[in-house]
Design goal:
heterodimer, A: 451 residues, D-Maltodextrin-Binding Protein, domain 2, 2 domains, six-stranded mixed β-sheet, 13% strand, B: 469 residues, mainly alpha, MetI-like fold, 3 domains, two-stranded antiparallel ribbon, 2 strands, globular
Chain lengths: 451, 469
C-alpha cells in the first residue's frame, strides 16, 4: 500500500515540476544562435564579438543573439554545426572557413545570403572589397557574408637582422632574397643559437598564395568556379617552383617546423623564442606577435608575404572565414539572423573588429575611414595586409579555388611538402603523387554529389 | 531485529534518493527525453511502411539472386543442422528425427540467408558483381544462415540444468526485466542501433555532410583490401600494439614489484606511480607535445641541444615518431597496469613463498615459479585491456603528437608512419567532405579485428589460467 502511495506521490511531483519548468510560449521573443571559433582561453576576439552582439541586442530588444564557440577549430565547428543541422538543431549563423565554402554550398543546409537580404542590404554589398567579395561568390551568387579576412605576412626579427649585418628596413621580398638572407643569417647559427633561418606552418595556404601571385590556377574549370573541379594542377611549373623553394630551404637547413601540420601556435612559439629569424603567419596573429616580441625583448618586423619572384605580381588570395545562414528556421528568425550579419559587418563594426583583432577591414568605406583617421600611419603593421590586398588584381587566380573535398586536396599538398622536406623526395615525384591523391578525392566526391 | 529495521530504513532511503534523482533528471532533461520519445515512437510508427518496402522489394526482386541466396542459405543451414544432429545423437541427447532436423536446417538457413542478402540488397548475386564481392557474399550468406540456426538448436537440445543453489532468482519475474530495462534501452539506442546504421553506411558512397548517397555494394571493403595505405596502417597498428603491450606490461610488473617492497613512504611512491593513469590521453599527449616539439621550442631538444648539441627529428622521422607514440602510450597506461599488479602481488600467499624459501629457492626462482604464475589472471586481464587500449585508446596521443605522420612514400602515397587504424578511421570519417562510407567499412573491419584478437586470447590463454589461490 505504502509503495503505491509513494509512487503516486512521486509521479505527481514529477508532473508538477514538468509543468512549472515548461517554457511559456506567449512572448514574441526571437532567439538566434551564432557559433564561431574564437572561444579559446584568453582569446580577446570573443569579447569583441560579444560586444558587437550586445550592441545589436540593445538596438533590437526583442532579439536575443546567443554567441557561442563550440570549438576553436574550423573543421570541428563545421562538423558540429552540420551534425546539429542533421538533427534539426542547427545554429542560425555559422562561421565557415574559406576552403569549406563549396562543401557548405553542396550540403544543402544553408541558404545563400543574397537570397535572404533585403534590397537595401544588398545595395551595401558593392562596398565590399572586390577580392573579398569574389572569394565568396560561387556561380555568380554571394553565398555567405565575408567576415574575418586575413592574409599571410612575413614576420622577422629586426634585432637579429641588425646583429648579422642585414638591413632591418629591407626585409627579403622574394624566394631568392630569402635564400640569400638566410645564407648571411645561418653563418652565425651557433652564436645566435638558431635552429633554422625561417619557420612557417606546414600548410597548403602559402602555396595557394604563391600560385595566385603567379596568376596560376590550382584546379581546372577556373579554380572550380565555372564548374566542378575535376583535377588539381599540382604538376604545373608554377607549383613546381614553390616545391623547389621548399627543397632549397630544406637542403640547406634553412627551414624548420614543429613536426605538426598547420601548427600556427607552435610555429609562433618557435619564432618568438628566437629560434628562427623569420616566420610566415596570418595577420590574424599580429596583435599577439607584437605583444610577445616585446616581452621577449626583440624588435618585431613585418613585411608583405614573400613572392616567388619579381614576375609574380598578381597578388594573393583572401583567407579567413565567412558567416553562413542555415536554412530550416522560421522566417522571423532568418530575418533576424541576416540583420545581425549585416550589423556585424557594417562599416562601424568592421572597424572595431579590425582594430581589435588584426583581421583586415572588408569594406572599402572602412578602409577609407581608417586611412582618414591616420590609423594605418600610426600602426604600420596593420597597413601591410590592406596594401597587399589593394595590389591584388581581381581575377580567377586570386579569387582562390573552391572544391568540395578541400581537406583532402590540401592535405595531399601538405604531405608532398613534408616528404620533400623530411624524406628528401624530389619535388616532381612528390607533386605527382599529391596530384594523384587529390584527383582521386575529387573524382569520388563528384561521383557522389553529381553536378 | 535492529539489523533488519536498519536494512529496511536504508532500502527506503535509497529508494527515495532514486525517485528524487529520477524526478530531477526527468525535469532537467525533459526536452531531450521528449525528443527521444518522439524518435522512438516515430521508429515504431515507421515499422509498417518498412515492412511494406521490404515486401515490395521482394516482389520486384529478380528470381536469380533470390534463388541463389535461398539455395546457399538452405544448403549451409541443412548441412550445419545435419552435423549438429549427428553430434547430438552420438552424445546421446534427445533429438528430433533426421529428416525433420535437416528440413528445419534448410528452412531456417534460407531465412537467415535473407538477413544478409536483403541488407546488401542481393547485390553480391548480380552478374556485374566482382568475383571478390560474390565470394564474400556467399560466405556472408552461409554465415548468417548458421548464425540464426545455432541458437535454435540450443533451444531444441535444452539448456543444461543450472545448479539451483548457485543461481539467484527474482521472486517476481518482471522485476528483473524492469531493472535491466534502462540499460537495455540505452544499449539499444546508443550501441545496437548505431551499429546497424554503420553496417548500412559501409555499403554506400557518401561524403559528409552531403545528404545524397550511392549504393556501392561491398566496394568499400574491396577497395580497402587493395589499398596500400590501409595495409600499412594495419601493419603499423600491429607493430605499435605489440610494442606497447610488451613494454607497458613488463615495466608495470617491474615497478609493481619494487613498489610492493616494504619501505618507508611506500604509499606515497605508489600514488605517484599510479598518477599518470589519472590524466586523460589528450592531456598527457599535450605534455608530450611540449617535450618533443621540433623547431627548437621543444623541451627535450632544447636540453639535448644545449648539452650534447643534437636535435633529433622526433616527429619528422618515421622511425622515431613511432617510438615517441609508443612511449606516450606506454606512459599513459602504465599507471593502470601498476594498480592491478600491485593488487595482484598483495594476493600472492606469503606461505607459499616462505615454503619455497625454506626449500632453498632464491628470489628470482621464487618470482618466476610462484609469483608470476599466481599473477596469471591479472596478466591475462591486462593483456586484453592493453590490446584494446593500443587499438582504440592511442588515438589521443597520435592526434596531438603526429596526426598520423610523417608521410611514407612520395606525398604520403604509402600512408603515414603513425597512421594507425583508429586514427585513419577518425580522419576518414570526420573531416569535412570525407568519405564516411569507406570509414564505416573500416570501422566494421576494425571491430572484427579486435573481436577476433580478443576471442583468440580467451581461447588460447585463458584455458591455462587457474583463478584463485
Amino acid at each position: 500500500m505504502i509503495r503505491t502511495r509513494l509512487l503516486t506521490l512521486a509521479l505527481a511531483a514529477v508532473l508538477a515540476l514538468t509543468a512549472l519548468g515548461a517554457p511559456s510560449q506567449a512572448q514574441e521573443k526571437i532567439e538566434i544562435k551564432f557559433v564561431h571559433i574564437f572561444g579559446g582561453q584568453q582569446d580577446s576576439r570573443s569579447q569583441v564579438v560579444q560586444g558587437i552582439a550586445d550592441a545589436f541586442m540593445a538596438q533590437n530588444p526583442n532579439i536575443t543573439v546567443t554567441v557561442t564557440s563550440t570549438s576553436t577549430d574550423y573543421i570541428e565547428l563545421f562538423n558540429s554545426a552540420l551534425l546539429a543541422a542533421e538533427q534539426g538543431q542547427a545554429p542560425h549563423i555559422v562561421q565557415v572557413e574559406d576552403s569549406l565554402s563549396q562543401l557548405a554550398a553542396d550540403s544543402g543546409y544553408f541558404t545563400p545570403i543574397s537570397a535572404l537580404a533585403t534590397p537595401e542590404q544588398l545595395a551595401t554589398l558593392d562596398d565590399l572589397v572586390p577580392t573579398v567579395r569574389a572569394y565568396y561568390t560561387i556561380g555568380g551568387e554571394l553565398l555567405s557574408m565575408p567576415w574575418n579576412a586575413s592574409n599571410p605576412i612575413l614576420y622577422y626579427n629586426r634585432t637579429l637582422f641588425a646583429a648579422v649585418g642585414l638591413d632591418p628596413d629591407a626585409p627579403p621580398q622574394t624566394f631568392e632574397e630569402v635564400l640569400a638572407a638566410c645564407e648571411t643569417i645561418m653563418a652565425q647559427k651557433e652564436e645566435l643559437k638558431l635552429t633554422a633561418c625561417i619557420n612557417f606552418p606546414m600548410s597548403a595556404w602559402f602555396a595557394e598564395q604563391w600560385l595566385a601571385m603567379q596568376n596560376a590556377l590550382l584546379t581546372d574549370n577556373d579554380n572550380g568556379r565555372m564548374g566542378r573541379a575535376t583535377e588539381v594542377l599540382y604538376t604545373r611549373p608554377e607549383m613546381l617552383r614553390v616545391a623547389e623553394f621548399y627543397k632549397a630551404l630544406a637542403e640547406k637547413g634553412y627551414y624548420t617546423y614543429t613536426g605538426r601540420a598547420n601548427d600556427y601556435n607552435g610555429e609562433g612559439i618557435t619564432f618568438l623564442s628566437k629560434r628562427t629569424a623569420m616566420s610566415i603567419s596570418s595577420t590574424a596573429g599580429l596583435t599577439l606577435f607584437m605583444n610577445f616580441s616585446k616581452a621577449q625583448g626583440f624588435e618585431l618586423g613585418t613585411a608583405p608575404l614573400i613572392t616567388p619572384g619579381t614576375d609574380a605580381d598578381n597578388g594573393g588570395t583572401v583567407g579567413g572565414a565567412s558567416v553562413w545562414v542555415t536554412a530550416d528556421h522560421p522566417e522571423a528568425e532568418l530575418k533576424a539572423a541576416v540583420d545581425f550579419i549585416f550589423f556585424l559587418t557594417s562599416t562601424e563594426n568592421d572597424i572595431t573588429w579590425h582594430k581589435g583583432t588584426g583581421y583586415f577591414p572588408i569594406r572599402q568605406s572602412s578602409v577609407a575611414r581608417l586611412t582618414a583617421e591616420g590609423w594605418f600611419e600610426q600602426n604600420p603593421p596593420f597597413a601591410i595586409a590592406v596594401n597587399q590586398l589593394a595590389k591584388s588584381r581581381g581575377n580567377v587566380a586570386n579569387a582562390g579555388f573552391v572544391v568540395g573535398p578541400s581537406t583532402e586536396v590540401r592535405e595531399a599538398l601538405i604531405k608532398a611538402f613534408q616528404s620533400i622536406v623530411d624524406s628528401g623526395e624530389t619535388p616532381e615525384a612528390a607533386l605527382a603523387a599529391a596530384k594523384q591523391a587529390a584527383d582521386k578525392a575529387l573524382a569520388e566526391y563528384n561521383a557522389v554529389v553529381g553536378n | 531485529m535492529r539489523d533488519e529495521r536498519l536494512q529496511t530504513l536504508s532500502v527506503r532511503a535509497i529508494a527515495a534518493f532514486v525517485i528524487v534523482f529520477s524526478a530531477w533528471f526527468v525535469v532537467a532533461e525533459r526536452d531531450g527525453l521528449l525528443r527521444l520519445l518522439m524518435w522512438l515512437l516515430n521508429g515504431i510508427g515507421a515499422a509498417p511502411s518498412a515492412l511494406e518496402t521490404l515486401i515490395t522489394y521482394y516482389l520486384t526482386l529478380p528470381a536469380e539472386p533470390l534463388l541463389l541466396s535461398l539455395g546457399i542459405g538452405g544448403l549451409a543451414g541443412g548441412l550445419a543442422s545435419y552435423l549438429i544432429w549427428q553430434a547430438a545423437t552420438r552424445a546421446g541427447r534427445r533429438v528430433p528425427n533426421r529428416v525433420a532436423s535437416a528440413a528445419l536446417g534448410v528452412g531456417v538457413g534460407m531465412f537467415g540467408a535473407q538477413i544478409a542478402a536483403a541488407a546488401t540488397q542481393h547485390c553480391t548475386y548480380l552478374p556485374e558483381a566482382a568475383f571478390a564481392e560474390t565470394l564474400i557474399g556467399v560466405l556472408l550468406t552461409a554465415f548468417m544462415a548458421v548464425a540464426v540456426l545455432l541458437p535454435l538448436w540450443t533451444l531444441i537440445l535444452g539448456r543444461r540444468r543450472m545448479d539451483g543453489a548457485e543461481s539467484g532468482y527474482f521472486r517476481s519475474r518482471w522485476l528483473g526485466y524492469i531493472l535491466i530495462a534502462p540499460t537495455l534501452l540505452s544499449l539499444l539506442i546508443f550501441l545496437y542501433y548505431p551499429s546497424v546504421q554503420m553496417l548500412n553506411l559501409s555499403l554506400v558512397a557518401r561524403r559528409f555532410p552531403i545528404r545524397t548517397d550511392r549504393f556501392v555494394c561491398l566496394n568499400n571493403y574491396i577497395s580497402l583490401a587493395g589499398d596500400a595505405i590501409y595495409q600499412n596502417s594495419l601493419l603499423t597498428t600491429l607493430f605499435i600494439t605489440v610494442v606497447i603491450v610488451l613494454l607497458s606490461m613488463t615495466a608495470a610488473l617491474g615497478i609493481a614489484v619494487l613498489a610492493s617492497q616494504k619501505v618507508r613512504g611506500a604509499a606515497f611512491y605508489r600514488t605517484l606511480l599510479i598518477f599518470p593513469f589519472a590524466l586523460s590521453p589528450v592531456v598527457s599527449a599535450a605534455v608530450f607535445q611540449a617535450m618533443f616539439r621540433e623547431g627548437g621550442s621543444g623541451l627535450i631538444n632544447f636540453f639535448l641541444d644545449s648539452t650534447v648539441g643534437i636535435q633529433p627529428s622526433w616527429l619528422r622521422d618515421a622511425a622515431l615518431a613511432r617510438w615517441v607514440v609508443v612511449f606516450a602510450g606506454v606512459w599513459n597506461i602504465l599507471g593502470f597496469n601498476i594498480i592491478f599488479y600491485i593488487a595482484g602481488l598483495q594476493n600472492v600467499p606469503r606461505d607459499l613463498q616462505e615454503a619455497a624459501a625454506i626449500d632453498g629457492a632464491n628470489r628470482i626462482q621464487r618470482f618466476f615459479r610462484i609469483v608470476f604464475p599466481m599473477l596469471a589472471p591479472y596478466t591475462f586481464f591486462l593483456l586484453v585491456t592493453n590490446v584494446t587500449y593500443s587499438f582504440y585508446g592511442i588515438y589521443g596521443a597520435i592526434d596531438t603528437l603526429t596526426q598520423g605522420g610523417p608521410p611514407l612514400g612520395a606525398a604520403g602515397s604509402l600512408g603515414g608512419a603513425t597512421n594507425v587504424l583508429i586514427y585513419k578511421l577518425y580522419q576518414d570519417a570526420f573531416s569535412p567532405g570525407a568519405p564516411i562510407g569507406a570509414a564505416a567499412a573500416q570501422a566494421v573491419l576494425l571491430f572484427l579485428i579486435v573481436a577476433v584478437l580478443t576471442v583468440l586470447q580467451f581461447r588460447t590463454l585463458e584455458r591455462n589460467i587457474t583463478y584463485g589461490a
